[in-house]
Amino acid sequence: MQEICRPEVPVRAGAGPTTGSIGTQSHSGIAPNCDCAFTSVHQNNLVNMPLRMRHGGTLARTLYRKTMVDHELRQMDKRTWYQPELTRMPSDLRGSFVELDCDSATEDFLEQAEAKSESILLQLWHSLVKLLLGWFFTQTSLNGFLGRGSMFVFSSEQFARLVGGRTGGRLLDLGAGDGAVTSQMEPFFDHVSVTEISAPMRKILARKKYSILEINSWAENGPWDVISCLNVLDRCSNPKELLKQIHDSLTPSGKAIIAIVLPYQPYVETGGKGDHQPEERLPIEGITYDEQVTSFVTDVLGPADFQVEKWTRLPYLCEGDLQQAFYWLSDAVFVVRKATIVSS
């Protein structure tokens, strides 16, 4: 599962500035962007440097800025996270859309993220470790070492709205990270397996007793009743091949849960062409979220022989730091099945 745009995280390579984007560079030289849809003068001068090394900056000033930004976060209208412009989409996408909201589990995650971000000693420790080890380990692995940066895509209640309740059978969660999102899906299935490339994250998953499969051979353990691929397509080097593997590894009546951050700005943490770009890009057209949802369904899922049953818009949330309580990107989450059923 991909890392969300935090001020120190190299994501969304090549992206232009977005509303509320953090105009700083990580040590990788890539300017991250997020969908933090408030405009705050307090963000403009945030830089990704150790606190005492900031030019003219102090810890007190940083904490003051954080207080102001977090106040805006608490006041923002979170309903906008869940509402696409359906009038701009084809009738079939309008009919299959499921509108969700910021439920109690989501609010709990946000409250916990804010509390964690206000632990000054903890955040200073994280900053020091990232400064020392950030050149040698990926952001995902660093998060695994530190037990930080947990993600939130959907709650169990929201997942039930999408899949229609407990389904039983076998689930495979690709790129499971620390298993936080996996745990929201787990109660709906009889057996859960996961994949994850990061060694520290694999240790976390092992402690949670998940069956861990290798990323190059998971398909051999199919077929699967449900395969979840949450925010992985824009983080892997060959997303078209991955979609084909998912399709071929499902049971005839199986479903895939596919989430992708839009607008599409791929970034490959390891592998790829050596410049953090994938070997193949998904043919997603358009500029806005709504245009790209339509293109993703038409130009990516359709040619991959998937048919959309339901879809929704959700915020892809990540724990914050000393700059703000949490970060988010706009996710499109699809429940799809095979468009063509081949009888055995």
UniProtKB/TrEMBL annotation:
Source species taxonomy: Eukaryota, Metazoa, Ecdysozoa, Arthropoda, Hexapoda
CDD domains tied to this protein: AdoMet_MTases (cd02440)
Segments for region (Disordered): 1-26
Name of the protein described by the UniProt record: Protein-L-histidine N-pros-methyltransferase isoform X1
Molecular function per GO: protein-L-histidine N-pros-methyltransferase activity
Recorded coiled-coil stretches: none
InterPro entries with a match to the protein in the record: METL9, SAM-dependent_MTases_sf
Species per Swiss-Prot/TrEMBL record: Frankliniella occidentalis
